[in-house]
């Protein structure tokens, strides 16, 4: 297998795994702690491989996440497009932040994602979520260094550009 096909396979596999991780059920008390996996993986690829991640890809992954999750079609697509747009816009700065600052930036991006989700659901007529609904962005930011280092290490071991 040549390097290009290996890179394409690895890139696609990480996005598919992120979508599948959305399906992992957690017990009731732990459900608010579930991070938004597609956003974290798309953030990683936005920082590491600018030419592969586009708004169209974010929209397609979002539509896939909508279908997998069974929510209103386009909800997650809108959220992921906004997230990837901001990440690509500030990519040159975010890449060179120390890991703790990257985690804070990821927290801000995930909180922005939650605010956008709240706005979409509020306009759709849903009631306000409980306070525990805001925990997931903090869990995602706490997991960011581990996810980033894991994906970066696997990419380096396989010598994928």
Automatic annotation (TrEMBL):
<dbReference type="Pfam" id="PF04093">
    <property type="entry name" value="MreD"/>
</dbReference>
<protein>
    <recommendedName>
        <fullName>Rod shape-determining protein MreD</fullName>
    </recommendedName>
</protein>
<dbReference type="InterPro" id="IPR007227">
    <property type="entry name" value="Cell_shape_determining_MreD"/>
</dbReference>
<dbReference type="InterPro" id="IPR026034">
    <property type="entry name" value="MreD_proteobac"/>
</dbReference>
<keyword id="KW-0472">Membrane</keyword>
<keyword id="KW-0997">Cell inner membrane</keyword>
<comment type="function">
    <text>Involved in formation of the rod shape of the cell. May also contribute to regulation of formation of penicillin-binding proteins.</text>
</comment>
<keyword id="KW-1003">Cell membrane</keyword>
<comment type="similarity">
    <text>Belongs to the MreD family.</text>
</comment>
<keyword id="KW-1133">Transmembrane helix</keyword>
<feature type="transmembrane region" description="Helical">
    <location>
        <begin position="94"/>
        <end position="111"/>
    </location>
</feature>
<keyword id="KW-0812">Transmembrane</keyword>
<keyword id="KW-0133">Cell shape</keyword>
<feature type="transmembrane region" description="Helical">
    <location>
        <begin position="54"/>
        <end position="73"/>
    </location>
</feature>
<feature type="transmembrane region" description="Helical">
    <location>
        <begin position="131"/>
        <end position="151"/>
    </location>
</feature>
């Amino acid at each position: 297998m040549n390097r290009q096909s290996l890179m394409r396979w690895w890139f696609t596999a990480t996005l598919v795994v992120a979508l599948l991780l959305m399906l992992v059920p957690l017990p009731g008390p732990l459900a608010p702690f579930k991070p938004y996996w597609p956003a974290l993986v798309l953030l990683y690829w936005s920082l590491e491989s600018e030419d592969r991640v586009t708004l169209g890809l974010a929209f397609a992954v979002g539509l896939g996440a909508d279908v997998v999750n069974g929510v209103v079609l386009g909800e997650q697509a809108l959220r992921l497009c906004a997230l990837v747009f901001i990440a690509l816009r500030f990519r040159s700065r975010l890449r060179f932040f120390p890991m703790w600052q990257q985690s804070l930036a990821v927290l801000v991006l995930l909180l922005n994602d939650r605010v956008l989700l709240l706005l979409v659901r509020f306009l759709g007529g849903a009631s306000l979520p409980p306070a525990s609904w805001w925990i997931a962005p903090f869990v995602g930011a706490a997991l960011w260094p581990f996810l980033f280092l894991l994906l970066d290490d696997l990419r380096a071991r396989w010598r994928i550009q």
